[in-house]
Amino acid sequence: MRINKLTDYGIVVMTEIATMKSDTVHTAKEISHRTKIPLPTVTRLLKTLSNGGLLDSQRGSQGGYSLSESASTISVASIIESIEGPIALTECSTNECSCSYESNCNVELPWQKINNTVKSALEKISLAEMIQDKPNNELVNLSMNYGDIT
Length: 150
What we know:
CATH topology of the domain at 5-87 and 126-132: Arc Repressor Mutant, subunit A
Number of helices: 6
Shape: elongated
CATH architecture of the domain at 5-87 and 126-132: Orthogonal Bundle
Largest sheet: 2 strands, antiparallel
Strand order of the largest sheet: 1-2
Oligomer: single chain
């Protein structure tokens, strides 16, 4: 599973806004400058995220964008869904499956279980958690120590 680049940028934009002053609106130009994401892409994302209810927008010379809710109540899943639509790892992960093999398929229910597990995990990660400094000891050690080879 891989989210697309635009969604990745959307998460970057949202985390950047979450680190900025919450009582101020922020312009697309300011966010583009801070994230190094091209202005047209940031503008598109801000409109999409605003239409998805995750950002409030103000028009005018003093206009800009701000989080519509606290960073602790916005989930990574909601950001992904506002840009890509419902989280579905496979076509049969949703109720709208139109697969020609559906009537003889043995993996539809397991895929739905996997999809629900992934979606649930993404719903449990808040925007606030994305911006927290985490100590390295919370990360899984992936080193491959084969002992002392001489």
